Structures are given as C-alpha cells and as structure tokens.
Amino acid sequence: MTVIEYMKRKNEILKEYIGIDFDLIPENQLAECEKIRLYDTSMGSCPYCLVYADNDCIECPMANAGNNCSDEKSTWSTYTGFCYITEIYPHNNILSPAYKPMVELIVQYNKELEED
Length: 116
Hints:
This protein is mainly α. Helices cover 44% and strands 0% of the residues. It has one domain.
C-alpha cells in the first residue's frame, strides 16, 4: 500500500466511523513520502508527521499547502476539536468507533512495509 492509498483509506475511516464531513488529508495535499513504520492511532499514524515533524514540518505536503497541523484553522486542528481517533475520547473515556479500523489499517500498512 502506498502512502497515498493509506491516507485515502484513513480519510474514509474517519468519515465512515466518526462522521466527519471533510478530508483530514485533503486530496490536493496527498503525496508520496518515505514509508516509515506506523505505531499508534494519533501522530504515529501519519506518515507525514513521522517523516517531516522532526524538521519543523518543512517539506510536509500539508504544511506547504498552508494546512500546517499547528495552525488553528488546519484540518487537523478542526478534526481534533471535533473528536479523536485515539483509543478513548478524552472527554468521556468511550472507545472511539474509528479505533479498531484504524489499528487494522496500521497493521496492514506495516505488514506490507515489512514485505517490501
């Protein structure tokens, strides 16, 4: 699975299981980057963050498009203000409906990465 395929599936999961009405990673900001093992359902589930965050997001396709996650109007900030895909919603300790499908996607991505 390519990074773009992974990101598209991530968008689909968020829409299907959480009902957000926008793409976390907008179509025009999808780009291939180095494939690194993903490790959780928060920042560790974003190939861009794992590749670009240590360098202040320089070269990140989202940041380059003016959609830097640290911007309060970014898709990430909008999304995190709405809900989380982490194991529990922080405000009520209920398991997120997107948690299991995101973990399954991460496992599949990592498995294919190891096979490459």
